[in-house]
Every structure is written in structure tokens, then in C-alpha cells.
From TrEMBL:
InterPro entries: ATPase_NBD, ROK. Its EC number is 2.7.1.2. The keyword Kinase applies. CDD domains: ASKHA_ATPase_ROK (cd23763). It comes from the Bacteria. Pfam families: ROK. It is an enzyme of class 2 (transferase). GO terms for molecular function: glucokinase activity. SUPFAM superfamilies: Actin-like ATPase domain. Belongs to the ROK (NagC/XylR) family. The keyword Cell division does not apply. Keywords: Kinase, Transferase. It comes from Mycoplasmopsis pulmonis (strain UAB CTIP). This is GLUCOKINASE (GLUCOSE KINASE).
Length: 287
């Protein structure tokens, strides 16, 4: 059995061929042309049709989108992809009929759930702390996306103590307070420069960010009682101390029983999490 996994991003689209054991057999990175989806997707089709025996295609796709039907809405970084029916496009251009799609954070959650050997009895909460902040939740080996697919869309979650808003965010937005973009907007500095100065300077913006992340962790513990929380994303990956401080503070904001059931991990999947999640999307009954 051979599986194609596709990760559509605002800059690049990556496509990989896997066997049933998740061994990567082939791989290609393609430029995501912002105003002409065919320039990108025709290369994806060429890759797929260059391999025999492909049984399914899993797609990690940006939002907003209708993932069941495979239709993009208004993508900020890919304006020319609006109303593109990407699942139908692939069905028409290839011989593969088993095609599923989900957003990247949900698929990264799924990838880590199986990577860390979790089962139907486990609940995995995933957070990506990068330019923005995203989340995914796995319950009973299934992606939990809510009634209309917007579950775990946490960017505007009011997790900060403060009520500051602006830049298109609501009051106390977790993305405004704790993401790379938010740190830059609130400080007028590059996020990494700001974070690197933390050990040398007392920085209120970083303290508020850590407090906000601690609240986010405690909120997840209260609402879904996960036994695994995984962090990924460039800010988390290169500033683990930032996440660890938030984890330490979060303990004081949840019941001891909730804390005792929790395990925290950082991603071990590098940049392949979305591809691996797309693989699992079509090989396991998890959607």
C-alpha cells in the first residue's frame, strides 16, 4: 500500500510518498504560487501520477476551508486559491478516489498522538506556538473539531489577564499576547530578539506572555482533561524555557488531580508533523 501526503503552505507545498509502515519513499517541495493554484497543484499531480499503486491521499490544508468538501475560502497568503475545489481537482487529475483533508494543527495533533504511542483511552492536546498560535485535540483516536469544524481555533481565546486588544485581535487574545507575531506587535521588536533579552532584562511583555500561556494550559486541563500536551512551532522549539515557565505556573491554576494525570512533551517530528498527520488521516478511522 502506498499513501500520498500533501502539506499545502503559504510559501511551499510539500508532497511525500509513504508505504504502509510510514517509510518515506519519495518527497518533493514545490513553491505555492499565491495567485495561481494550478501552477502548484499540477506539479503535485505530476508527482502523484509518477507513482504506481497509490491508494489514498491525505491533505494538510490551511484555512479557512471546508475540509469535508475540499474547498478553500479566503486564504490570506494564497488569494488566488479562493473557491478552489482541491479534492475534486485531485480526483479528476489522478486515479485516486480516497482523498481526505484537515487543517494543519489538527493533523499535527494526530501525528503526535500516534508518535507518542497514545491509544483510544488517551486525550492528546497539541499547541503550536510560532508566528501564530494553533491547537488540535485528539479524543478516542479521533480529531475533535467541533460541530462546524472550528473547534480548537484558539487564536482569539481571551487567555491573558489584561484586556488589551488591537491589530485585529480581541481583548486578551492568546495570539496577541504569546505568539511570535503578537510579541513583535506589542514590543516593536522581533520576537526572537525580545525573547533572547529576557534573561538580562526584566520584561513585562514576556512575563505577560508566559502568564497567558499558563492560563491556556490550565484552561485545556479544565475543559478536556488531557493526559498529554505537546508543544511545537518555532517559538516553542527554540525557546523551550518559555514554555517550561508557563507549564510550571499552570500547575497552580489546576486541580492536583488534573496535574498528576498530565505529561508534557516537545515535538520530535521536526517539520514532518503535518505530512505524518495526513498519512494517519487516511490510514486510520480518525476523522
Amino acid at each position: 500500500m502506498k499513501i500520498i501526503a500533501i502539506d499545502i503552505g503559504g510559501t511551499n507545498t510539500r508532497v511525500a510518498l509513504y508505504d504502509e509502515s510510514l517509510k518515506k519513499l519519495d518527497y518533493k517541495k514545490i513553491t505555492s504560487h499565491p495567485r495561481n493554484y494550478e501552477e502548484t497543484m499540477n506539479q503535485v499531480v505530476e508527482f502523484i501520477n509518477g507513482h504506481q499503486g497509490v491508494e489514498a491521499i491525505g491533505i494538510s490544508a490551511p484555512g479557512p476551508a471546508d475540509y469535508q468538501k475540499g474547498v478553500f475560502f479566503n486564504l490570506p497568503n494564497l488569494p488566488g486559491w479562493r473557491n478552489f475545489h482541491f479534492i475534486d481537482f485531485l480526483k479528476q487529475k489522478t486515479n485516486v478516489k480516497n482523498i481526505k483533508a484537515q487543517n494543519d494543527a489538527n493533523l499535527m495533533a494526530l501525528a503526535h498522538h500516534y508518535h507518542f504511542k497514545r491509544t483510544k483511552d488517551d486525550v492528546t492536546q497539541f499547541f503550536t506556538v510560532s508566528t501564530g498560535i494553533g491547537a488540535g485535540l485528539i479524543i478516542e483516536n479521533k480529531i475533535f473539531a467541533g460541530s462546524k469544524g472550528f473547534g480548537q481555533e484558539i487564536a482569539n481565546l481571551p487567555a491573558a489577564w489584561n484586556k488589551e486588544s488591537g491589530f485585529g485581535y480581541g481583548q486578551g487574545s492568546i495570539e496577541l499576547y504569546a505568539s511570535g507575531k503578537g510579541l513583535s506587535l506589542r514590543s516593536n521588536m522581533k520576537a526572537q530578539e525580545l525573547l533572547s533579552k529576557y534573561n538580562y532584562e526584566d520584561n513585562k511583555i514576556i512575563e505577560e506572555a508566559i502568564e497567558s500561556l499558563a492560563n491556556l494550559i490550565a484552561i485545556s486541563a479544565a475543559f478536556v482533561n488531557p493526559n498529554l500536551i505537546v508543544f511545537d512551532g518555532s517559538v516553542a522549539r527554540y525557546n523551550k524555557w518559555y514554555i517550561m515557565k508557563a507549564i510550571e505556573i499552570s500547575r497552580k491554576r489546576m486541580f492536583e488531580s488534573q496535574w498528576n494525570s498530565l505529561e508534557f512533551k516537545f515535538s520530535e517530528l521536526d517539520d514532518d508533523a503535518a505530512l505524518i498527520g495526513a498519512f494517519h488521516l487516511v490510514t486510520k478511522n480518525n476523522s
